[in-house]
Protein: Fe2OG dioxygenase domain-containing protein
Amino acid sequence: MDDDARKLALLQQLAQPDSESEDEGESDDEDEGEGESDDEDEGEGESDASTAQDELSGIVPPLDAHGRVAGCPPVDRSTRTYRDALVLDDATLESLRRDCSVVYSLDGSNWQGADQPPRCLMESLALAVFERHTRGLEVDRTRSGAEWWAQVRTPGDQAEPIQCHWDVDEFCQDALGVAISPALSTVTYLSDAGAPTLLVDARTPKGYAVRRAYGAVTAATLSYPRRGKHLVFDGQLLHGAVPLARGAAGDDDNRGGGGSSDGGGGGGGGGGGGGGGGGGGGVDGARVTLLVNVWLGHMPCNIEPMPDSLLPLLTPLPADDASAAAATRRLAGAGDTGAGAGSDGHASADAQLAVRIGRDPTPGSTLFETNFGRGAPRHRLTLPLPPPPLFGCAGATARDAAACDQTPLSPHDTVSLRFDGGAGEGSARICAALRRAAPEKSPAAACEAALGPTGKRRRRDG
Structure:
């Protein structure tokens, strides 16, 4: 029995008693008087469960009161963007985009252990992201690392339904009902095109019980693609992508990446290879991103390093004196003071625009609504979003739309949203999806459901 099959058997053994008690209900009372042999079997079952629990102690880590891996060093979980965090010459960038096309054809994400040397440029960049956000921390490198994957979306891609989600160890979630999120989630944009990433101030509910997250949403963030920009946020945040009208900063085509979401499904089903091939080759308007989740104290189950067979197809590790090596060191945070903004790659606090949405609709605003859920879209996210021209108005509020210059200011590519918490129609909230709503048809979601708990984690970028 291979390691993954053994993990699945152990997890199912522990999960089985709970699922049976939920399904069988009162039948337990009827079985009580059927014989003393039941007591013997029960004792054997308890022993088996205890053994399984002992063996799983190295697989499922202890969690703290917030559902995070316990005993890990504190990391900065605030949402931040770094402009020009990855600076590559045109030739190397084009090569990296081709690499993304190759990786995009995979069904799942890849693992780069913190204690393992990288074998190619992409692995070195994934490790650099890990190093950037753990610098100065005492990390157990044998149980920490970077989960990474790539996405390529071209303007010709058919827009799929938005898939908002929480990043979790899907193996533990599906087989045991334990929601374990990465310490941090990140997006590194390799082009200027496509839909913005949406972050919602709603954290992973215990056991992925989404109804615990129902209620008003008070804050969100939109991050527009910008070549070399790096976005980092709390790994427990709900996130996805928003296809907005053409004309917003960094959004060259509202179809490019419109049906994608950062962090939770990988390759977009059967279209992954085809879409990636076009974008990675340098097609204008392609949305290309490198996604990295930073895991501390836990290696997600059922995720492996990238197959050796792909290495000949990817850009090799650069020489120490090459510009790509310098870019990798820069991405890792070498010389980063964590202050300031702009082309030096530091946290771009000045790119944050506070937009406050009141109860009264703002002229030109968009009511963004999408169903989401693991396996079936049972839940609904509703957010009123300001009109794209506001994204170019420094210090503007939603009611200042008429006074704003309609030309977007490209430096302002990250937008902080604040909602008033109202409960009326059109307010920002998470609730149950309407039963009459037709299920959103997502090829990637269908593939994810078909794979089951033994499949590799699938990712969708946005």
Remarks:
- Residues 3-24 form the longest helix (22 residues).
- The chain has a mean pLDDT of 72.
- Residues 110 and 234 are 20 Å apart (CA to CA).
- The longest strand covers residues 145-153.
